[in-house]
What does this fold into?
Amino acid sequence: MLIYSLEEKWKKNKEVYLQNKELRPAQKFMMEHKNENLVIVAPTGSGKTECFMWPMISSIVHEASSNQNSWQQKGVRALMLYPMNALVSDQISRLRRMIGDTEGKFREIFYKNTKNNDIRIPKFGMYTGRTPYPGNDSKERNKSIAKTFKRDLLSRDEKVLDKLKLIGKYPAKVDLESFIYSLENEDKHITNDYDAELITRQEMQNLCPDILITNYSMLEYMLNRPFEKSIWSETKKWLNLSSDNKLLFIIDEAHMYKGSSGGEVAFLIRRLLNKLDISRD
It folds into this structure.
């Protein structure tokens, strides 16, 4: 296990890295130490998040290109666990910019690497208390969230929308207007094949995201309730397809799990592994 602190290096080179958009210290260090177990200790903004984001995306692309039968089976490939919703929102913004760009650049790269333009694209979703909506599918609630989406997103002027997309604050839907129309007029959560993001709980229960981002409180509910049963059953099917299929479990901001809350999260992780029949080996 290699433990490395980048704080001093970051202080010296911060402006150079940011101005020239070069690899940040944590990112560069990760690239120099591939295939090693690392604990990277670095300040905010030094690139720690990309140290797991890049391997996560690479793993997904590798599966889709090397085992397309496995890739066709839906299931959670990566689960990102956070202690609070604000941190979840930050990572959703990153994923929107990385694999959910509106110009479809990632999709082109994905098709090029898989050599298959008909293969499904990776999908991600945020499943927290802010994700609409809990309970059974409801016509009234569908109309209500459609109204909210139209007010908060579609009604903005073009310059504001461009800015929201640039900073990752706009859903990674290829045609959000059509999705909202289906909610409001057809009472359906219809996901476009090119959508990178699933934005309602019903979408994720029906399709199961490849990347699931949540917090520990919601994960506990998801393990107990019948509404999310399909997410775990699909993931178990995927895990059982090949010995190469491994769940990537990312516990970011781990330093925040202290004392009794840390013990609760430890038991929660054990329950998740038991739910998916994953051994501790």
Remarks:
- The two ends are 18 Å apart (CA to CA).
- The CA atoms of residues 56 and 269 lie 19 Å apart.
